[in-house]
Design brief:
heterodimer, A: alpha/beta, two-stranded antiparallel sheet, globular, B: alpha/beta, eight-stranded parallel barrel, 13 strands, binds flavin mononucleotide, Luciferase-like_dom (chain B), Diverse_substr_monoxygenases (chain B), oxidoreductase (chain B), flavoprotein (chain B), LLM class flavin-dependent oxidoreductase (chain B)
Chain lengths: ~450, ~325
């Protein structure tokens, strides 16, 4: 490995307490509460023991629905992210606290203040994952109602981030300076409510995959979450694309951290790891969930079928996308169904087995040593800067990673052995906030 | 029965009730200061602390401070002030329900309105004139959302692969004059079902309120009534009068005011027990007056049987003697 492009690269871990979707197992005896404050504390403190950079919460502003009915198969119902993270600030010392918060159904003065509050309460550990839900279906929960097409929601998101940073930066060494924002989406006039935190202002995260989403990250974000973390070539292609976009945006190509979301399943031997993965998949993809996944492919309700039986014989339909979760969203259902049929016939798989093998995929399975080797390669070849890990069990799902995998990574010199800074920006090794650099530093 | 006489609330926002109180601000880092003040109030035996706010205020928002305090305390009731004028009721409902989960049932909500033009400009909204209509509709929506998950909606039924019983989840379908909200909430029903709702007298229809805050010493038409009292206490260093004089003019805010010795306040509050259900005390300078309250006033009231310390594990509703409501959407409640 002499031509390793990033020989000194290290890995950054985050933990994503999901609170929704079928990846979190709720049926096992060890599945704990999704709401008890002790569950959040346990996960955050375990991650901190494992020297993670960040604890991360997602957001969904309407309960998921399938065919106009509340989706009842998966974990659902979670606390408000910034509120929960403010509580965790009181019971953790070092770990970053990242809130997914929407730019469509919030206002800059309010959200900037809430995030600053979290940043100050945590002494500089706050992050903001900027998301941009666009659908009228979510809008039905808000005064402002459903609005914004794809282009407008990106314009609003961009102007929102600019406004939030103006508010954060508006408290200077001379105290608060009046901030006025006039843009296509906003007309604001206020005194910044809070001084700067130990890290200047919150770290900006972005989870998005479209070309606009990637460019948005390249212009504004410090960290990008992606879904490109399972396959090395796919991860590397994504990272190279992001580096290209960063250069185009006039930023150094090491200015953004790439942390794909992933699941990690660990066993003492490869065989044990595979067996555990098999157990995890069967818990995640229950018979009803398998029928739901197949329904998303076929484009109509299959909940009355037998998951242990064969695939449906009907042709798929192209269903309308209403924006609700579970709207039939497979891009080319005919091709997917052809593949499912071929593989199911070749392996003699039931519908459920096919859904497990060919449905949404994720994650890494192995021994601590084999995973550490693999992740070291990911890091040193520039495919990722780390992973945002989604535990499949709450609250103990991180224990194996912290007690078994982290030491292997430390032995390989690819993972920190102690926190060296106090803020989230320190942990991630980031420069000063984008809006707070002098021109020389920005160009370097 | 719970109510021994008088429930004791203390307002712990900022530096104190006097506009010049910040001159004596504590230099501790903000997170340590919030934690320290909450610990003093809890250890003294206060029933609850309120955390004042206004969206265009400087300072950390009341929701964030309340959540932080909830995680750092174990018996104190925690009641953030949250405005209803420009905020999204859906967010407000989620934030407050989350504090009730975090505190395992010790949270309340002090409903407020934003009348300042400054707030409208910060939010980039036209000035709302009918702030009472917004307060009424937003409070109704927040309360409906708190009921939109029945208590046992999470069923974890392995036999049918169902995590939720969707029949125990309810769209609220609120339609008001200025906005509508579909529901259900994204946060499951919280430990108290409904947080304890506090409101200043005459802001809301009484049926939406659990505790009225008033400058009167007589009961309002809500289950409980607390009297608002600003307090300036004598300290070993200076008399109450000297302390006020040193800070300069102290504008009236339509609250009762007491300036004097700790013993005098104990006597005043002992007299008030029975006339009203509680008091909310606003210390002149938080650091200084909260210290006297916690060392002298609250212990004397507890010793005298006028007030009682919250019982560990009790919800704020239980401490206040309020029942835990069944969800209004639950079949058995209809
Ligand atoms: C790893 C990951 C996590 C995400 N988490 C959330 C979330 O919690 N809430 C949300 O509204 N959107 C979430 N998203 C969705 C993104 O914000 C974005 O809307 C979506 O990826 C579409 O982006 P695009 O417009 O760039 O295609 C997530 C996306 C990714 C890749």
């Amino acid at each position: 490995m002499t031509d390793v492009p990033y020989p000194d690269a290290t890995l950054h871990f985050g933990v994503f307490f999901q609170g929704v979707n079928h990846w979190t197992i709720w049926s096992a005896p060890e599945s704990g509460s999704q709401l008890d404050p002790a569950s959040f504390r346990r996960v955050a403190q375990t991650a901190e023991r494992g020297l993670f950079d960040a604890f991360f919460l997602g957001e969904g502003l309407r309960l998921r629905e399938v065919d106009g009915r509340i989706h009842d198969l998966d974990v659902a119902g979670r606390p408000d992210a910034i509120t929960q993270l403010s509580a965790l600030a009181a019971v953790t010392d070092r770990i970053g606290l990242v809130s997914t918060s929407n730019t469509t159904f919030n206002e800059p003065a309010d959200l900037a203040r809430r995030l600053s509050g979290l940043d100050l309460l945590s002494d500089g550990r706050a992050g903001w994952n900027v998301v941009t839900t666009d659908n009228a279906w979510t809008g039905e929960n808000f005064r402002r109602g459903g609005f914004l097409d794809h282009a407008d929601r990106y314009r609003r998101a961009e102007e929102f981030v600019v406004a939030a940073r103006a508010i954060w930066d508006g408290w200077t060494a001379d105290g608060p300076q009046r901030v006025q924002v006039r843009s296509s989406q906003f007309d604001l006039d206020l005194l910044p409510p809070l001084p700067r935190s130990a890290q200047g202002h919150p770290v900006i995260f972005r989870a998005g995959d479209s070309a606009e989403g990637r460019d948005f990250a390249a212009r504004h974000a410090d960290v990008i979450f992606s879904a490109h973390g399972n396959d090395f070539d796919d991860a590397l292609a994504f990272a190279q694309d992001i580096r290209r976009r960063l250069r185009a945006a006039g930023r150094p190509e090491d200015d953004l951290r790439i942390l794909p979301g992933t699941e990690i399943i660990i066993g003492a031997t490869e065989e044990e790891a595979r067996e555990k993965a098999r157990w995890v998949r069967l818990q995640q993809v229950t018979p009803a969930t398998a029928l739901n996944i197949a329904g998303l492919v076929w484009g109509f309700d299959l909940s009355d079928r037998d998951a242990d039986g064969p695939l449906p014989t009907e042709d798929p339909v192209i269903a309308e996308n209403t924006g609700a979760f579970g709207a039939r969203r497979v891009a080319d259902p005919r091709a997917v169904v052809d593949r499912w049929r071929a593989e199911s016939a070749a392996h003699n798989w039931s519908l459920r087995e096919t859904a497990i093998a060919l449905g949404p995929q994720r994650g890494h399975v192995g021994t601590p040593a084999s995973l550490a080797d693999k992740f070291t390669r990911f890091a040193r070849f520039g495919a990722v800067h780390g992973f945002n890990i989604t535990p499949y069990l709450i609250p103990d799902g991180l224990d194996d990673i912290v007690t078994l995998l982290v030491p292997e990574l430390q032995e390989r010199g690819v993972y920190r052995t102690s926190y060296t800074g106090t803020t989230l920006r320190d942990h991630l090794g980031l420069r000063a906030p984008l809006t707070r650099r002098d021109p020389v530093e920005q160009a370097s | 029965m719970p109510n021994p006489g008088l429930h004791l609330a203390v307002e712990i926002d900022g530096d104190g009730a006097h506009p010049a109180a910040s001159r004596r601000a504590d230099p501790l880092a903000v997170s340590r200061r919030v934690r320290a003040v909450a610990a003093i109030a809890e250890n003294a035996g206060f029933t609850l602390a309120t955390v004042d706010d206004e969206p265009s205020n400087s300072g950390i928002g009341a929701v964030e401070r309340a959540a932080f305090i909830a995680a750092a305390t174990s018996t104190l009731g925690i009641v953030p002030t949250v405005s209803t004028t420009y905020t999204e009721p859906f967010h407000v409902s989620s934030q407050l329900a989350s504090i009730d989960h975090i505190s395992v049932g010790r949270a309340g909500w002090l409903v407020s309105e934003s009348t300042a033009a400054e707030t409208a400009r910060a939010w980039g909204r036209p000035l709302v004139d009918d702030t009472r209509r917004e307060a009424r509709d937003a409070t109704r929506v927040v309360r409906d959302l708190w009921d939109s998950w029945e208590d046992d909606a999470v069923v974890r039924d392995v036999a049918t692969s169902r995590y939720l019983d969707r029949d125990r989840l309810h769209y609220i379908d609120f339609v008001g004059e200025t906005f509508s909200v579909k529901g259900p909430a994204i946060v499951p029903r919280s430990p108290q079902g409904q947080l304890v709702v506090f409101a200043p007298a005459d802001l809301l229809p009484p049926e939406l309120v659990d505790v009225t805050l008033t400058s009167e010493t007589t009961r309002a038409a809500t289950p409980l009534t607390f009297t608002e009292i600003e307090v300036a206490l004598s300290t070993p260093q200076a008399t109450a009068g000297e302390r006020i004089a040193e800070l300069g003019p102290w504008p009236e805010r339509g609250r009762l005011r007491y300036a004097g010795s700790a013993d005098g306040l104990v006597a005043l509050l002992t007299d008030l027990a029975g006339a009203v259900d509680g008091v909310r005390l606003h210390p002149l300078v938080l650091n200084e007056d909260l210290a006297v309250l916690s060392q002298l006033v609250v212990p004397a009231l507890i010793r005298g049987g006028v007030a009682a310390r919250p019982i560990p594990g009790a919800s704020l509703r239980t401490t206040l003697g309020l029942p835990r409501p069944v969800s209004r959407f639950q079949e058995s409640a209809r």
